[in-house]
UniProtKB/TrEMBL annotation:
GO BP: proteolysis
Domain Peptidase M28: start-end pairs: 198-400
Highest taxon of source: Bacteria
GO MF terms held by the record: metalloexopeptidase activity
Protein's name according to its UniProt entry: M28 family peptidase
PANTHER family: METALLOPEPTIDASE M28 FAMILY MEMBER, PEPTIDASE M28 DOMAIN-CONTAINING PROTEIN
Pfam families: Peptidase_M28
Source organism per UniProt: Aquirufa antheringensis
Annotated SUPFAM superfamilies: Zn-dependent exopeptidases (SSF53187)
Amino acid sequence: MKKIFLLLALPLLAQAQKIDKIITRSETERIETYLASDELAGRKPFTPGIEKAAQFISAEFEKAGLQKTNGSYLQSFPMYQSKVLSVAGGLDEQTLESKQVAIISKEATIQIDEKSGFEVASIKEGENFGQNAYRLMSAKKPTIAFLHESFAKYIPRLSGRGPLRENQATIIFVVANTIPTKFKVSATQQVEKLQLSNVVGILPGKSRPNEYVIFSGHYDHLGIGKPVAGDSIYNGANDDAAGTTAVMMLAKYYAKKRNNQRTLIFAAFTAEESGGHGSVYFSKQFNPDQVMAMFNLEMIGTESKWGKNSAYITGYEKSSMGEILKKNLVGSPFTFYPDPYLDQNLFYRSDNATLAELGVPAHTISTSKMDSEPNYHKASDEIQTLDPDNMTEIIKAIAKSATSIISGQDTPSRVDTTKLK
């Protein structure tokens, strides 16, 4: 029995020795430290900080020897930035105040009433605001949504939602406890057409070049906000400089090995925090039937609820991908678990969602304790709060667990789109 176990363990041992020389703590820490530095000022879209981050990621992809697309690692696309200048109107017999309204639109002038043909929706007291607001903001038809006054505190956040897509439908949120019989909203906006960029590198497959495996994370964050204890920079060390670092380290690892049978695509997405715009644009560049798997890496810089050498996979039950990853880690100390935070709806809240909704086995890997993460979306999300040793081991585990998928030996089952949401 000892001899049989030794024979089974030898390939895993040899793989571990090779991976330890490529995915190192020092290299992981070097990349993470820069992405989470004050120099990048929180990597908010349309700022110099996110431009510097994109240049840095591109340079690292260049050093690794990844291929470009159309002569560049930058996958650029148009977006719109809008700023409300004035709001007026009424609800039944009451005057509408600007603080009651949030507008998501790329239109310079908005004039609507109950006869304008807008879809009418509401979010009632006690309902899940996050889930309902996300659904409404993704609506394809112009919509006006009336929010219970208990959600009035979210109006500033909705108003500052960020860049808008080319096909963005006008969505208007209004604080009102009931849906009025008559309403009127008039607004003017300053609208500017700008560009955002994902950073994408490619490692062509040897025998299955038209079958793709994607490794992704988002490199944007919240930028500069209200000072807390004198610190106004939201560095986003865990969210998601950690995931982006993992993507870059995996790119270096697979580029060194160059034995991938399927084509590997490494993507750092922009504007995840303001609507997932980068991953939405990215997903439209592919025939989803050719994407065999997507590893989306989000907030892996801290220990999971199970401690070291562990992480969870969102939407675990929606495909066989999790079971394949676990199989490839037999004999190692690392364990993948199903997402324990189902009430947080994480499967639909990250950059895996767009491709998953098209049937791709696209899942997010994370360690974030979403019921108690102390630095989530705070200025305190800095590199000092991370565990670089554990983070490095997580990246190694992802590399090992993906082995049979990138070789073509295993293909995860597709997500059943009829059972989503």
